User: What shape does this take?
Amino acid sequence: MDPALAAAFHATWPAESVREVGGFHVAHGHGGGDRVNSAYVVGGWRDADIAGVIGLQRDWQQPSRFLVLDEDEPLAATLTALGFQPARATAILQIETARLTGLEIPPVTAFDLWPALAIQKDIWQAGGIGADRLAVMERAARPRTSILGRVDDRAAGAAFVAIHGGVAMVHAVEVQAELRRKGLAGWMMRRAALWAAENGASRLALAVLRSNKPALSLYQTMGFAEASGYRYFTQPSA
Assistant: This one.
């Protein structure tokens, strides 16, 4: 990841607090998902730093977890040797906002609005995005917004978008299961790109599980390109 994308990746989905331990930042989110409860590299690290991270996470009664970029093979190898196990391989995709703003969005299909509506929170809740993740959205600095998607005359999708340093990151994309594969996610991305461009962002980016083949296929068809990827390395509980 280039520095601007890396900064936006963390700033637009912020932890409640972050501590520096050697070459790592250690995020503490009190819930909110793995990203805001992981350690990640910010500079040159040493083996002693890893021990310090583990100790701090233990003090926080938090699982020992590192977010490791695919290109950081030395850290992955070191954690593996310590018994950490990788999971949730994820791709980070990006596109220039201008590439998504040329098509007119069908009427009453996708809207940007803040704060999010109760129906969006219900959609997120049904997809496992609960109060702790909504708290992360509230912590994100402005500009920020939510995307409401509609299909078949029904509210069907929700997403969160925030901007940092000219990069707009899309998070918490959720479409109701029975209304998927109708093209709604694509229109929601285009609405996000329009909002991002209007608010000074030249890039739109998101993270998607590599196991989510339909979503990967959609985004790649739209023109998104992979910028990086990562896995979480977690130490099994004793």
